[in-house]
Amino acid sequence: MEGFDPRTSFGSEISKRYDAGGGLGDEAETVAVGTGRIALPLTRAGVRVDGIELSQDMVDRMREKPGGDAIDVTMGDMSRVTTGCRYGLVYLVFNTIGNLLTQDDQVRCFQNAARHLAPGGVFVVECRIPAAPERPYRQFVDAEQVAADAVTLGVGQYDPVTQVLDLNHVSISADGILLMPISLRLAHPPEFDLMARIAGLRLRDRWGGWNAEPYTATSWRHISVYEPAGE
Hints:
alpha+beta; N-terminal domain of TfIIb; 34% strand
């Protein structure tokens, strides 16, 4: 997307609105460092959580919340940076893997996750099943929210060569117009499975939801659990 920079696009205004964004709300089932919407409930449950985050604004938003200072955050690219520790669980929820816009970077992310796994550890990826490639002319305008005093539109364009979806959430209200752009590289589960193999991992489980719902042809998302292939 022209003008899109993943380092700054989750800036001050976006980070303030991120927790209230459409499509969230499954925190109780899933319990990004992002704004801490997942990491903080895990911490309150007694789980040690470290994070990797590219956007300082998102981290600042998390720090404002109760308990936000208790989470160690390493700033940088999740496909390359290391925390220097190993974990029983490394996770990417809510389409986070798509923030890496090339196949090479997504493969490197799998490899980086594998390097951070403790013996017996798993790498968990949650991602939507791509729908944009099936849209007419691979572009669309969706009415995401409609109210008497405001509307939010999702304006998208998909490039089948790069598998990148350029999406802008456009909020129109009496306060003005707010643009919330994002670019995502879309991939189907079999491509992630191949990335896992390259990283020395293998698929252990795949579900259609956080309650271990079966993954079927009608599932709108997948939760994939990968483990080291040698274990």
